[in-house]
Amino acid sequence: MTADRPFQAVPRPDAQRVGEIRMALDPRNAAAFPAFGEEARASLAAACAAVARDEGGQAADEAGRLIEALRATAGALDPRELTPRAGLMGLFDSRSGRLKRMREAFRAADARMSELTSDLGVQAQRLRGRVTDLDPALETLRAPIVELGAWIEAGRARLADTADEAPEGEAAPRTVLSERLETLAAGRMAGLGHLPLARALQNADAVAAERLDQAVTALAAWRDDWKKALGLDAKRPRRVQPDPAALAGFTARLSQAADRAQAMLADGRARRARALAKLEELRRALGD
Predict the structure, then answer these.
(1) Is the alpha carbon torsion for 251, 223, 62, 274 positive or negative?
(2) Per-10-residue mean pLDDT, the chain, length 288
């Protein structure tokens, strides 16, 4: 079972960086306060957008469709067709004829299963790729969070140096800077909120990829078991007398693996929907 990836805390801003921003902030230039820290805020918003892309959702949706196709293809093969027919129809229904028809049906199904095996592997790799890509994206996100924190600390350190009075009808410079700092602080909190939500998406994708790998393994076993039971595991068909109950058991095991994969994909979709809704709220808090 894939272990959840740990969440790492964001470090405090470097004191030297805070000091640099503080010294560059002129407390008498109130006109610059509304745009204070804008570059840092915009950088954080861009990093958050990269983390919130729902590429894993597309792969999971496609994988779900492939799992259903797998289930339908396997279910279309009915081992009971190998059982002699009752009544007059049984007089014209030989064992070799039933086996021939089943082999033909299996060959068609097996060709489709080969395609599904490849396609499921592609979607599992897409999910694993998203898991891998999120690691550097999350690390990239931490840097602008720290940088924006430095701007906020520097601005708060300068508040006492700004004028707290203004002509009638105008906001005092201290009020303008204070409101700007509140906006930046809300943006930083939104950035922080992206970290655990993105990690939750990453963990869901990792488990979904694992379940798809298990489904691919189960599908390969199903194909091998049916080939052997039908005598198609050699260069030339072997003389066999397949057991319908055994064939049904092979399909039941495949269906169980498909059920587990679908359940995990459904759980991932639900978690992804909740996380993306929260990420959208956070994106609005960032001002983008």
Answers:
(1) positive
(2) 56 94 94 95 89 76 93 94 70 80 96 95 90 84 93 95 86 94 93 88 86 92 96 91 95 94 87 84 76
